[in-house]
Specification:
- With 117 residues, the protein is mainly beta.
- The protein is built from one helix and 14 strands.
- Strands 1, 2, 3, 4, 5, 6, 7, 8, 9, 10, 11, 12, 13 and 14 form a 14-stranded parallel β-sheet that branches.
- The longest helix has 7 residues.
- It is globular, with a radius of gyration of 13 Å.
- The N terminus is likely disordered.
């Protein structure tokens, strides 16, 4: 029997595809992948994946954030933030764990907070 929490980890609830634009408030459980443009409020108890072509202009509140695109806003993650080599971030990060690949452009401050917020 499989572990439901592991299955939920890989279920993509929503996708904002390349060429698509979304403006507004987006609150949901689960996982979202953004390859297009997003502006507004983004909040989940799950995971946010921002592809290389993704452009996000918002604060992100999530359990896990994996970013390869462009972000203008703050990231608040309760578990982990991973900035891939193609990521450009203008904003602050608050998270217990941070992984940064070589090549990331990051303008902001980072608070490593081992306690959940």
């Amino acid at each position: 029997m499989s572990n439901p929490s592991t299955e939920e980890e890989f279920l993509v609830n929503s996708i904002i595809g390349e060429g698509a634009e979304f403006t507004g408030e987006f609150k949901f459980p689960g996982l979202i992948r953004i390859d297009g443009k997003f502006r507004g409020l983004l909040e989940t108890t799950g995971k946010v994946l921002i592809g290389k072509s993704g452009i996000v202009d918002t604060d992100i509140k999530a359990r896990v954030v994996v970013a390869g695109g462009e972000i203008r806003g703050n990231i608040y993650a309760t578990e982990r933030v991973t900035l891939l080599s193609s990521c450009r971030l203008e904003g602050d990060i608050v998270t217990p764990r941070l992984i940064v690949e070589e090549g990331v452009v990051f303008h902001g401050k980072c608070t490593i907070n081992p306690t959940r917020h």
